[in-house]
Amino acid sequence: MKKILSWEALKIEVERRRRQGEKIAFTNGCFDILHVGHVRYLREARKRGDLLILALNSDVSVRAIKGERRPLLPEEERAEVVASLEAVDYVTLFNETTPLRLIEFLRPDVLVKGGDWKEEAVVGRDAVRSWGGEVVLVPVVEGASTTNIVEKVLRVYGQP
Length: 160
Known about the structure:
The protein is of the alpha/beta class and 160 residues long. It has one domain (7-157): 3-Layer(aba) Sandwich (Rossmann fold). The protein is 41% helix and 18% strand. The chain contains seven helices and five strands. β4, α6 (125-130) and β5 (134-138) form a beta-alpha-beta unit. The model has no long low-confidence stretch (mean pLDDT 92).
């Protein structure tokens, strides 16, 4: 089965799985250079539901958040990489700077974010709670970040 879906196709699948009594977990992010922190985070996020939806920031969205030099990898490649992970059931892209509209559209049971977020700052928190869902913060792997990888590459191989 295809894992990278449009919002509409994903909504149909989510509703089908929900009718079967399954719990829907949702997370989001840029996932620009996949690293061990991402893998461990997604593995933990997957434990929070019967399926895990990963909402991926589009290239437009990443640039709006992180600046013109990002993302390093295009959205099609990032989507394919995260979709290949066993922990991820479905991937969908969003263009906005936050996934709030998508969260309200899909109505997940569990919203998962990294422990580097303060719960009150998690976008979609109030919406998910309003329909009886929960917000879960997963501990981060200290030092594992795309920024740290980029800095190390520049240090080891020299800045142009």
